[in-house]
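Hey, sorry to bother you again with one of my protein questions. A protein chain has come my way and I'm curious about its shape. It would help a lot if you went through both lines with me. I owe you a coffee for this, so here goes:
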Amino acid sequence: MANNSDVKIIDFLAKGNVICQIDADDAEKAITMLCERIALNTAGLDCEKAVEAVLEREKINPTVISPGLAVPHARLPDIKQVLVALATSKKGVDFKAEG
C-alpha cells in the first residue's frame, strides 16, 4: 500500500480536465465550469449533482488554502475514483473565505 506522501494530484488529473484562464469571478461559476469539464470527460458523472455537492461543501468550510489557491471538492456516493479538474484565472475568483 502506498503511503500518503506517494500520492500526487497529477496522478488524478487528466489532460482534458485543465482549463486555462477561466472567465469566472465567483466561486459558483468557477465550480460549475470545473464540474462541467469533469462531466464532459467522465462517463456517468451528473454535473448538476457534482456542483450541488461541491457548493454545499464550500458553505460548511471554504477550501481556500492560501490567497490565490482554493481546492473546492466533495464526495459523491456514485463516484468511487478521485476526479480532478484544475483551472487558472488571471483576475482571480472570490471564494468568500475569511482571512
DSSP finds two helices and four strands in the chain. The beta strands are 13-19, 64-66, 69-70, 84-87. Residues 27-40 form the longest helix (14 residues).
